[in-house]
Amino acid sequence: MSADSRAAGERADAPPAATHPDGPARIGAPLAVLLWGGGLLLLLASVAVAVTIGPARISVPDVRSTVAAHLGLGASDLSPIRDGIVWNLRMPRTLLAAVCGAGLAVCGTVMQSLLRNPLADPFVLGVSSGASTGAVVVVVLGVGGGAVPLSAGAFTGALLSFALVLSLSHTLGGSTDRVVLSGVAAMQLFSALTSFVVMTSADAEQTRGVLFWLLGSLSGVGWSEVALCSAVLAVCLVICLAHARTLDAFAFGQDAAAALGVNVARTRTVLLCTTALLTAALVSAAGAIGFVGLVLPHAARALTGSGHRRLLPVTALAGAVFLVWVDTLARTVLDPQEVPVGVVTALIGVPAFVLVLYRTRSTS
Are 232 and 278 contacting, i.e. CB atoms less than 8 angstroms apart? Predict the structure, then answer.
């Protein structure tokens, strides 16, 4: 394939807004600050209200007093049981939902711009499939003799999958289409390994537990998962924001970015590793939650345009708010039975995905 053909293919695969880096909805700094401030207030309100929803009757003032008491800023009037429900059960789960939503949305934004593909998401590198295999190996095969937690196995599997993708894509030439194809190959390989282990070694109870986790679950998480995932998100978000102008340059294609002075190979490796690390941390804590990183970046671009310095924070806030309410719906809609979070995101995300496909078709 000639260089002109590859360039034409890249232009056809670019996100709708990517061909116009300022975007149809270019906004000024005051409006951007307003969006960020409004998004942050909406996120705080969403977390406070979501914690009150459930079988136990808890109000927003109860949540505020409990949080203040645990931060040493006052005393809580709640009973120990209700205090435990707020602080040990609902609050870490809701905060982890916010962190996962923000992280997956940011990863999707970076992947779509880096690969110039509007349908790219955080799992395009096969990280989710590798994490699933690692989790299944620990739970079903008992690797580690019970000393290795599921999250550690999932994280290890995710990193192994990404290492395979990076090695394959480098061997095949390192272009964006080779990265995507390598990710698809790794995804199929680790999905097959997961299915093989479950079919040959798992009993009915293990199969049900593994399937529930594979579909995304925030049940049973604690403050340690919140702290770890929040730290990884903070570091990776800083790295992505530091490369915001570089991501803008990638909107014109790799050749144009190189002409603007961007070290294409190094930048792509850094950002791929960053998104893979963040995705691995989130998947190891909450399982595979799809469609967040696919759909939310497009919604955020409609508000901010495609300039990444403004797009990334808005996308993170939108993803956080979205997943907080999705998780609230998942744990309450069929109470006392819980629906996997990934099922709810798929039910919401599929129509949005079809809309993205339609927009891609109409602009190609």
Answer: yes
Asked if residue 229 lies in contact with residue 99, where contact means CB atoms within 8 angstroms, the answer is yes
Alpha helices in the chain (DSSP H): 3-13, 29-52, 60-70, 80-84, 91-114, 127-139, 150-171, 176-201, 204-214, 223-242, 244-250, 254-259, 264-286, 292-304, 308-332, 341-363
Residues 20 and 14: their CA atoms lie apart, in Å, by 10
What residues contact residue 37 under an 8 Å CB cut-off, 6+ apart?
Answer: none
* pTM reported for the whole predicted model: 0.86
Backbone angles phi, psi at 85, to 5 degrees: -60, -45
The pLDDT assigned to 325 comes to 96
What stretches of 73-142 show up as alpha helix (H) in DSSP?
80-84, 91-114, 127-139
Angle at which helix 91-114 crosses helix 308-332, to 10 degrees, equals 140
State how far the Cα of 71 lies from the Cα of 99, in Å rounded to an integer: 20
Across the chain, mean pLDDT equals 85
* Per-residue pLDDT tens digits for 229-279: 999 999 999 999 999 999 998 877 788 888 888 888 889 889 999 999 999
Percentage of the chain surpassing pLDDT 90?
41
Give the sign of the dihedral formed by CA 63, CA 65, CA 66, CA 67: positive
42 pLDDT above the threshold of 90: yes
The string of DSSP letters for 317-358 reads: HHHHHHHHHHHHHHHHTTTTS---HHHHHHHHHHHHHHHHHH
More confidently predicted of 13 and 341: 341
| Other Cβ atoms within 10 Å of 174 Cβ, number | 15
* φ, ψ at 182 (rounded to 5°): -65, -40
Provide the token pair at 350: 């599929």
In 3D, which of 307, 298, 362, 290 has the Cα closest to residue 100? 290
Instruction: Report the phi/psi class of residue 253: left, alpha or beta, with left for phi > 0 and alpha for psi in -120 to 50.
Output: left
pLDDT tens digits, residue range 55-109? 888 889 999 999 999 988 877 778 888 889 999 999 999 999 999 999 999 999 9
Residue 241, pLDDT score: 95
